[in-house]
Design brief:
The protein has 503 residues and is of the alpha/beta class. It has 16 helices and 14 strands. It has helices at 33-61, 76-97, 111-134, 140-172, 185-195, 214-217, 232-239, 256-264, 306-325, 327-340, 371-374, 399-407, 414-419, 455-458, 466-478, 482-498, and strands at 3-4, 177-183, 203-210, 221-222, 226-228, 243-247, 270-274, 285-290, 293-298, 346-352, 358-364, 424-426, 431-432, 451-453. A five-stranded parallel β-sheet has the order 5-3-2-6-7. A three-stranded antiparallel β-sheet has the order 11-10-13. It has a two-stranded antiparallel ribbon with strand order 1-4. Helix 3 runs antiparallel to helix 4.
């Protein structure tokens, strides 16, 4: 729904008295607690159940070994109290202490899972210290199984809980944060576009309060209502919001942001700042306070060093193992292709790789042998923009080829390119070399080796516009890490199974 702005500039009323409430008991309940509190209770129950289940599995597998645990045969009641009650409660305490229930980390990103792993390390160290201090004779194998098993089960339970939360946010539009964007209209619309790209994030802009450019904004069509000259706190309550997002230059006005933070104290409304620094992930951004002035320091992308060498090693080893293991699959696909259309099994095309070097990519052939000759007659049917050419029902693709594309099996021979060092398992997709020079932002993709899968593929593949695909590739280049690669590989499995955007 589009909104036509027709607002009146009203004088801003004097701000209400500011300051933290004198008593902690008088603080207002945060509006976000409508979803956060029930979700936290559900996580507490799931974590407790996972720890109990891990203890039960450990005892079942090593029943004889656990007999020495605090003289379990002589005092079974105390043994089961420790195993099924105190240890799971200890897990909850350690998880809470490591911030695993902090609403800032729940529902999105990897911080929640990192904190679970930190909690597991803390729990292991605590159990080891207690066993040493009390001189308790423990079965190392059974304790290790219980602790590692609890960590794995807690991670799996939280992954499933997050999946349910995302479904609720996408389908029901609930369990999210209703945001009021504050700033100039272009800045607010940029933030609106960014936060609405992922409904799973649960950030729902409901209104814009512009701080400048009133005349230019009048009469413009916007996705959400626009207001000006209003008391921000009153506006948030009027539209049912629970979060204020200060966008771009509005966060740099001296004293304004601080006074807004004072005004929101005790109101139960969150305050977030969206600086004019987009598409840069948290690990590269650090706040360094100097004499009371918080400076936002942006590190360079990590495209070298030990982590980069480990990535290269993992690529080569995984490609070698994959090629050997997939020999039967390759043979079956080769036979199916030859039966569908006489001609070569593989299709090799020049692509642009790392630092602009050209190489020939390996793929299973999915089109008839005369596909290149028929391309000219289909150019006007192109359904994408930029450097891509895609048609959902391309007549040049034979039936088996259509299946190979939908299942991404046609990409498997690119393991050969990975083994030779021309490609990586994860990275921007290699683009055809006959499209000329890569200018502007697009050329930055060439700082890393192209990949079999990438952020573009797990975010929509062929359903994305060219500009969106480039943005995702540049985000990957600027924010690369080994953990990010593993996350993309994991997401690739779900995308391939669902066949999203593959044609």
């Amino acid at each position: 729904m589009r909104h036509l702005n027709s607002f009146e500039i009203q004088p801003t009323p004097p701000p209400a008295p500011n300051g933290v409430p004198r008593s902690a008991w008088s603080r207002s309940r945060r509006r976000a607690s409508r979803w956060h509190r029930p979700y936290t209770v559900a996580l507490l129950l799931l974590d407790f159940a996972a720890a109990v289940l891990a203890s039960w599995i450990s005892i079942s597998l090593f029943e004889k070994a656990t007999a020495g645990f605090t003289d379990a045969d002589q005092d079974a009641t105390w043994f089961h109290t420790v195993t099924y009650l105190l240890l799971p409660l200890g897990w909850l305490i350690v998880l809470w202490g490591n911030g695993a229930y902090d609403r800032r980390y729940l529902g999105l990103g990897t911080d929640e899972f990192k904190r679970v792993i930190r909690a597991a390390v803390t729990a292991t160290a605590s159990v080891s210290f207690l066993a040493f201090a009390t001189k308790t004779d423990l079965s190392r194998l059974s304790v290790a199984t219980a602790l590692v098993g609890a960590m794995v089960l807690i991670l799996l339970a939280r992954y499933q809980a997050r999946f349910v939360l995302h479904l609720i946010r996408k389908r029901a539009g609930q369990a999210g944060h209703r945001m009021v964007l504050v700033g100039t209209l272009p800045e607010c619309l940029e933030v609106y576009t960014a936060v609405t790209r992922s409904p799973a994030a649960g950030l729902v802009p409901v209104a814009i309060h512009i701080t400048d450019g009133y005349a230019a904004a009048r009469g413009m069509q916007t996705p959400i209502p626009v207001y000006a000259g209003r008391d921000v706190l009153a506006l948030v309550r009027e539209v049912g919001g629970d979060t204020i997002a200060v966008c771009g230059s509005a966060s740099s006005e001296p004293g304004e942001l601080r006074r807004l933070a004072w005004q929101l104290e005790g109101s139960g409304i969150d305050l977030v700042v969206a600086p004019q620094l987009t598409d840069i992930a948290g690990p590269r951004v650090h706040i360094r306070p100097i004499e009371g002035l918080p400076l936002l320091h942006v590190e360079e992308p990590t495209l070298s060093g030990v982590a980069w060498l480990v990535k290269n090693l993992i690529d080569r080893v995984a490609a070698a193992v994959g090629l050997i293991a997939l020999v039967p699959v390759f043979m079956a696909i080769a036979i199916a292709i030859r039966l569908s259309d006489p001609g070569p099994v593989f299709f090799r095309q020049p692509r642009v790789g790392h630092e602009g070097r050209t190489f020939r990519v390996w793929k299973f052939r999915t089109m008839y042998v005369d596909a290149e000759d028929r391309l000219a007659s289909l150019v006007d049917q192109n359904e994408t923009d930029g450097m891509l050419f895609k048609i959902r029902k391309d007549p040049r693709v034979f039936p088996v080829g259509r299946f190979l594309r939908a299942s991404s099996l046609d990409e498997l021979p690119q393991l050969i390119n990975v083994l030779w060092g021309e490609m990586s398992l994860v990275g921007p997709r290699p683009l055809p070399a006959d499209d000329g020079d890569f200018l502007g932002d697009v050329r930055r993709r060439l700082l890393v080796r192209p990949g079999i899968t990438g952020l573009w593929q797990v975010s929509g593949r062929s359903d994305l516009s060219w500009d969106e695909a480039v943005r995702l590739d540049l985000y990957y280049v600027d924010n690369w890490s080994l953990a990010y690669d593993l996350s993309i590989l994991w997401r690739t499995i779900g995308v391939v199974v669902a066949r999203k955007g593959a044609y």
